[in-house]
């Protein structure tokens, strides 16, 4: 297995902000190379737990995800290990299914001492909190083997495009420092390289987002990928009390699932609910049921 070193690549000493000018032909060779590559082929045969399943090898992304979920339901302890949860969690990140990603993280917690799985858990948590810069930073400075490496590259590309679409939809203009934070760009030059790809410019410390032909092409290309289009919901963060109730229910469901054979489950479950403050405000829950 590969190691995830704590390495940060300093692309430029120029701080983010002010004006950045760069020629169109001076774009990042890495970004060009990634853009020209086909989508990851998901060679799941590299994962021993799935090596004898021809359905997984030949199926679409959605079918592969369903196959992983089915394998966990019918699980053999030898099949459901840190490698299994790594694949499942990355699939949920690509799909942007944060509810299932949370459930997956909870089930994987006993194995989180594994550095690779722990890194994926941190990436997932940051993406769910919309801390895209932190998530991208972890991806860029990780060192996974394929197929996880290729899948994480897909997560990074989708995250960057999601941020750009969000900014184009929500902002008239945005400070370069803020956009750089969202994209983990460490300098004007690094930020402008990203902006050049979609026809945006950095001027006087600000970026004016707009729907350009370059951005349209990138969106279309992503829509046609085997992983499907990126989400375009811009108000996905639920209000606090509801979010807390959902988190508690997810944890409770996972707790019950992992303790089904324990005769003391009812007593332990009651302790669990009390320790998490019950299920929130009952009047709120009743109102939710009426709606």
From TrEMBL:
Domain CSN8/PSMD8/EIF3K: 82-210
InterPro entries noted in UniProt: CSN8_PSD8_EIF3K, WH_DNA-bd_sf
Pfam families found in the cross-reference section: CSN8_PSD8_EIF3K
Upper lineage: Eukaryota, Metazoa, Ecdysozoa, Nematoda, Chromadorea
Protein name: CSN8/PSMD8/EIF3K domain-containing protein
Annotated spans, Disordered: 1-40
Biased composition (Acidic residues): 24-35
């Amino acid at each position: 297995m590969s190691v995830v070193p704590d390495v940060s690549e300093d692309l430029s000493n120029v701080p983010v902000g002010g004006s950045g000018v760069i020629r169109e032909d001076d774009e990042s060779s890495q970004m060009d190379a990634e853009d020209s590559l086909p989508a990851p082929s998901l060679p799941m045969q590299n994962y021993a737990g799935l090596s004898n399943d021809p359905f997984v090898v030949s199926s679409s992304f959605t079918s592969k995800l369903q196959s992983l979920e089915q394998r966990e339901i019918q699980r053999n302890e030898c099949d459901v290990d840190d490698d299994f949860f790594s694949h499942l969690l990355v699939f949920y990140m690509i799909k942007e299914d944060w509810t299932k990603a949370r459930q997956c993280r909870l089930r994987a917690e006993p194995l989180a001492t594994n550095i690779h799985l722990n890194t994926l858990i941190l990436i997932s948590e940051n993406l769910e909190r919309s801390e895209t810069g932190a998530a991208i930073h972890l991806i860029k400075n990780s060192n996974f083997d394929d197929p996880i490496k290729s899948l994480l590259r897909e997560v990074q590309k989708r995250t960057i495009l999601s941020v750009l679409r969000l900014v184009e939809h929500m902002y008239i203009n945005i400070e370069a420092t803020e956009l750089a934070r969202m994209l983990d760009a460490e300098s004007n030059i690094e930020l402008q390289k990203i902006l050049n790809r979609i026809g945006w410019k950095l001027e006087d410390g600000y970026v004016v987002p707009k729907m350009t032909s370059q951005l349209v092409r990138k969106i279309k290309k992503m829509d046609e990928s085997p992983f499907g289009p990126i989400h375009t919901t811009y108000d996905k963060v639920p209000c606090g009390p509801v979010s807390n109730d959902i988190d508690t229910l997810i944890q409770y469901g996972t707790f019950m699932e992992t303790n089904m054979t324990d005769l003391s489950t009812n007593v332990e479950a009651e302790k669990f609910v009390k320790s998490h403050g019950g299920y929130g405000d009952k009047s709120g829950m009743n109102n939710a049921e009426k709606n």
